[in-house]
Amino acid sequence: MPKLMLGNKAVARGLYEAGCGFVSSYPGTPSTEITEEATKFDEIYTEWASNEKVAMEAAFGASLAGKRSFCGMKHVGLNVAADPLFTLSYTGINAGMVICVADDPGMHSSQNEQDSRYYAMATSIPMLEPSDSQEALDYTKAAYELSEKYDTPVLVKMCTRVSHTQTMVETGDRVEHKCDFQMDAQKYVMVPAMAKRRHPFVVERREKLSNIADFNKVESGSDNSRGFICDLTSYQYVKEVFGDKHPVLKIGMVYPLAQEQIIDFSKTVDELIVVEELAPFIETKVKAFGIDCIGKGKLPEIDELSQRTVAISLGVDVAKGKAFSEDVPPRPPSLCSGCPHRGLFYVLKKLKTYVFGDIGCYTLGMQAPLGSLHTALCMGASVSGLHGFAKCSDENAVAVIGDSTFIHSGMTGLTDISYNKSNATVIILDNSITGMTGHQNNPANGLNIKGEPAGKVDLEAFVKSIGINRVRVVDPYNLAETEAAIKSEIAVDEPSVIISRRPCVLLKNVKTPGPISVNADKCIGCKSCMRIGCPSITMDDGKAKIDQALCVGCGLCKQMCKVGAFDD
To answer: How many whole angstroms from its chain centre is CA 233?
Structure first.
């Protein structure tokens, strides 16, 4: 019986049915649920790796051992894993290896809008693009067959809309799969002499794959004055706007493209339109095949597409047809009530400190009224960036980085600070979880993906082991303690680390004091409490007011109130 299934859950189901035995990933929206769902199958070993590079290398090792393997990540995570990815194209695999990358057009939770299809082209690794949950399951299973037949890892590209949309899925049974381990240094040791012999194999494999049209689908229409080539969610938008009116070539394998099929399809329509999100990847290839087509001259190259965008760009009068309304009230994200990062950012703003930010919940420290985060580049960049800044400036500056992000890629930057002795203060925001992607465990909290006890990184011991002599732990709920520590550490002429430690208030095991209230007779309406940007506090008739449903009793507002208007 068909089941309604999230796109990411369907990928996990595909892993199960394909006989995948090993999954290693780093959480990253919109890819995270794939690994979380795979964990529910006892037949699959799953883990959170310290970063995407490690996850991909671990999956490769599992493939060599004879187990079908998988690693998942978001688009910027593929940048981290690019080092092994390029060479994996040369070595090939033993048991099938699938790499899922989830792009984020529209940047719903990302710092850029990169198009991962170019990684497929740059590495000569095939890439499949499912457009709904059923294809997510089917393509994942087919990717393993493709991987083993052509001796290659296979990229499966998801995106926010496919990952987080539910459609009906027909499921099947698991088929166990195991390959024998074979030792082959000529194939897997990529010293220059051996790599030179493997590169021609990559080129030959690409040519063989370019003849595959099995994942593409041609749909006829009643009006051949126009025809569309589209992939991923673009296919859904075209079908919603035009229905079955015009022929459509729906691309399922976006790299390498099936040249002969595209040429044949182009001959059946008067005008060929390529609809794709972000860069003109397919359009450029189609034009290289000698085919005249319309693409980014009409459709935007920035932001995700929508039914409305496709309709307006291609001359459909939305007033006469479907409205495709996109009038949605804005809902900017904010730090939660009781978030342990709030007090820290308030102190940093008070001290007028330049803050190198990183990727995580704490990026929200940039928003008013806190406004105390001034850069956010990529995972780990806060620490490395601070090092360069400290070597070239005497301005007060710190780096903030979460515990999971520190494990991911902050350790090497801090080692650089220690080794090269920059006058830099790094603040590790230890909230005992990977917060923004939905509360995944990590090596700093000592629990594995199933919540079981695991090896734990002792942050204080690690920091000291790489040569940082000044290490302090503070409670960010204590504003005076936090301010004194930051003042002290940025004043010394040597590297230092402050660990701001308090668990995320949303963790199930965290007990809070409960809401506090305002004594209206004492409140003078000075709005000092509003400076921390707590969503629990509002002004009502000139007096502060606490939302009892939101407040957890962190006590920051009490510490800021000079007239003692807050009561437990």
So the answer is: 18
Q: Looking at the predicted structure, is the pLDDT value of residue 324 above 60?
A: no
Q: How many residues does the chain have?
A: 568
User: Pick from 287, 291, 290: which is nearest to 269 by CA?
Assistant: 291
**Would you give the DSSP letter of residue 294?**
B
Nearest Cα neighbor of 505 from 358, 341, 366, 383 is 341
- 547: alpha, beta or left? (left if phi > 0; alpha if psi -120 to 50): beta
pLDDT tens digits, 11-28: 999 999 999 999 999 999
The pLDDT value recorded for residue 330 is: 73
| Beta-ladder partners of 157 | 101
Burial class (CB in 10 A: 0-12, 13-18, 19+), 331: exposed
pTM: 0.93
Distances (CA, A) of 266 to 245, 289, 291, 336, 421: 16, 11, 7, 53, 62
Kindly give the pairing relationship between strand 22-25 and strand 45-48.
parallel
Q: Which DSSP category does 264 fall into?
A: H
Please check whether residue 404 is in contact with residue 386, taking contact to mean a CB–CB distance below 8 angstroms. no
Query: How open is the CA angle 170-175-181, to the nearest 5 degrees?
Result: 145
Q: Is the pLDDT of residue 328 over 90?
A: no
Residue 462, classified by CB atoms within 10 Å of its CB into exposed (0-12), middle (13-18) or buried (19+), is: middle
With bands split at pLDDT 50, 70 and 90, how would you rate the model's confidence at 380? very high
Q: Hey, is 358 helix, strand or coil?
A: coil
- Contacts with 254 (C-beta within 8 Å, 6 or more apart), sequence order: 117, 120, 127, 128, 129, 157, 231, 232, 281, 282
